[in-house]
Amino acid sequence: ILGWGGVLQSLTLDVNGRARPLVLGFDTFPDYPARSPYFGATVGRFGNRIGHAAFTLDGVRFELDANQGGVNHLHGGSKGWGKRIWRMEPGGDGRSVMLALTSPAGEMGYPGTVEARCLYRLTDDSLDILMTATTDAATPINMVHHSYWNLDGHGTIEAHRLMLEADRYLPTGEGQIPTGEILPVAGTTFDFQRSRRIDARGAADYDHCFVLTDKAGLRRVAEVTSGDGRVTMTLDADQPGVQL
Predict the structure, then answer these.
(1) Which residue has the higher pLDDT, 214 or 39?
(2) What DSSP state is assigned to residue 180?
(3) What is the dihedral of CA 199, 23, 168, 73, to 10 degrees?
(4) Is the C or the N end of the chain the one with fewer CB within 10 Å?
(5) What Rg, from alpha-carbon coordinates, does the chain have?
(6) Which residue from 40, 22, 20 is spatially nearest to 32, judged by alpha carbons?
(7) Cα 171–Cα 177–Cα 181 angle in degrees, nearest 5
(8) pTM higher than the cut 0.85
(9) Where does 16-114 have alpha helices with state H?
(10) pLDDT in tens, 44-95
(11) Coil, strand, or helix at residue 108?
(12) DSSP string of 215-235, one letter each residue
């Protein structure tokens, strides 16, 4: 785990006696600020995009850092949490670490001071990531863990099998901003309600939010299996959507 960006740099799993890398990351730190597409970052204050880099809250309009083409706001801005240095406190068990960050009012245009926390904890069969935030004023919060997973440990992921517990998705328009529509996945290339190869319905560009079918509490929302069939990852979450 890196303090810069709250990044998960490396995660490996023993597969037939060899350590298989599961997430994309760089071997040396200078590559992260220079050219990382948020590899493994803890993104905030708001993960994903905000159209025209502005929002209205309680009748007040807030202008944000327009770090996506000078038009939209992406992942909290040019100095978002995925590019900040987090304070780190290792857990006493040797298998966990708590990261903490203070985001002052006005940072990247957001109201309210936020105290953010991200706990990484490794168990015998899971990586637990618990994100929390407290604020002294109303503000959007959408903390996101941003790893790129490759369960084969090399190559591309088209042969991975994916299942998403989602019956709808959010189509996007210019700048990959959601259009406001919520469309069914049935009969489209976005339908992963039953496990299938990612490329089974032809080439598609996926960078969309999927609306989860079951909204109640912590539950399984996705399952991914490597192309060679030797590694399966399940994703549990308590949020209403998941980004593919």
Answers:
(1) 39
(2) S
(3) -120
(4) C
(5) 18
(6) 40
(7) 35
(8) yes
(9) 31-35
(10) 999 999 999 999 999 999 999 999 999 999 999 999 999 999 999 998 888 9
(11) helix
(12) -SSSEEEEEEE-TTSS-EEEE
| Tokens 């996926």 belong to residue | 206
Interatomic CA distance for residues 5 and 27, integer angstroms: 15
Q: What are 240's two structure tokens?
A: 């209403």
What separation in angstroms does the CA of 10 have from each of 7, 22, 23, 39, 201? 9, 8, 6, 10, 31
The predicted pLDDT at position 92 comes to 86
Token reading at 98: 């708590």
Query: Cα 201 to chain center, whole Å?
Result: 25
- The label of the residue with tokens 């090399």 reads 154
User: CA of 170: how far to CAs of 53, 181, 194, in Å?
Assistant: 19, 6, 19
Residue 162 to residue 148: CA distance in whole angstroms: 14
Tell the residue number behind the tokens 């929302």, with chain if given.
221
CA 146 to chain centre: 3
Asked, as a colleague might, if the bond just before 230 is cis with ω within 30 of 0, I would say no
Residue reference for tokens 């006493």: 92
Q: Is 18 exposed, middle or buried (0-12, 13-18, 19+ CB in 10 A)?
A: exposed
Contacts of 132 (CB under 8 A, 6+ apart): 116, 117
Q: State which amino acid sits at residue 144.
A: V
CA distance 105 to 134: 12
**Pair 166, 242: CB distance under 8 Å:** yes
**CB contact at 8 A, 204 and 188:** no
| 216 pLDDT tier (thresholds 50, 70, 90) | confident
